Every structure is written in structure tokens, then in C-alpha cells.
Amino acid sequence: MRSFRKYAMIGSLVLAAALVAAQAIRIERTNPSVRSEIAADPAIKPLLKRACYNCHSNETVWPWYSGVAPVSWLVGSDVSEGREELNFSEWGSYSADVQERKLKAIAKETGEGDMPPWYYSIMHRESRLSPEERTAIGNWTASVLSQRGPR
After folding, report:
1. Alpha carbon distance 39, 18 (integer Å)
2. Residue 37: CB partners within 8 Å, gap ≥ 6?
3. Which of 25, 31, 34, 103 would be 141's cystine partner, CB 3.0–4.6 Å?
4. Counted domains in the chain
5. Alpha-carbon span 84 to 138, nearest angstrom
6. 140 located within any domain
7. Conformation bin of residue 119: beta by default, left when phi > 0, alpha when psi is -120 to 50
8. Which CA distances in Å does 77 have to 23, 28, 42?
9. What is the dihedral of CA 97, 99, 102, 108, to 10 degrees?
10. How many CB atoms neighbour CB 127 within 10 A?
11. What is the residue range of 70's domain?
């Protein structure tokens, strides 16, 4: 039993030292300037801001835990990946074809409940979209796409 306690104590100290050392590896928590934000219907824009903008814009609100490793690494990775996939703050830089693909993806991902991700919504209850809000986003994207005409 003594041997187990000894190894448990050593393991705990190693883990604590690793967590302290991990704090030295910082993520970049920046918000580049907004270049050309998406023009969305006034009823839809607040939904996008509430549910999407923390990962899909240059207007990320960095929570306190985004400064604590190793969680900070996950948050930084999610924001980086989210901005790369879709960035509402860079919308005008996308070609018409890319905008069309992204609008279809927005409708699909929100409509199927894949966005925002469940693990994000656990910590950010305000990001949860009701079925009606998901339908509203889908209707908005369909309206925008129909105004563009067939391609």
C-alpha cells in the first residue's frame, strides 16, 4: 500500500508540473479587423452573432478559460478552424460561388443541429438555437440564394 501512495504522489506532482509548464505555451487570442461583414436580415443577424460569431468571425469573445492550457489549445484550434471554414467578418472577400456554397452549408449545418456544436453549447447556453430559429436561418439562406438566381 505504501508503494501505491508513493507512486500516486509522484504521479500527482508530475501532472501538476506538466500543467504549470503547459501555461508557457500560449495561443494567439486576437481579433483581426472586420473587413466586409455579411449583410443579413435584421431578424437573422442577432441569431448569427449569438450562435456563430465566436468561432466564425473576427469578433470572438475570448472567455477566461481560453487563457488556461490545455483548454486554451482546444479553444484556439476551434476558433482558427471556424474562421478558416467560414468567416462572417470576411464575407465580402468570398466569390459569389463560394458565398453560395457557404450559405448552403449554413442552412444544412444549422438545420441538422450540427452547428453550433453540442460541446460548445454546453458552455455557452446562449448559443443554442431553437427549432424555430434554425428554420428562420434556413428560410433566410433560401431567400438569399433564390434572389441570386439559378447558377
Report:
1. 46
2. 57, 88, 89, 91, 92
3. 103
4. 1
5. 22
6. yes
7. alpha
8. 16, 10, 30
9. -90
10. 19
11. 28-148
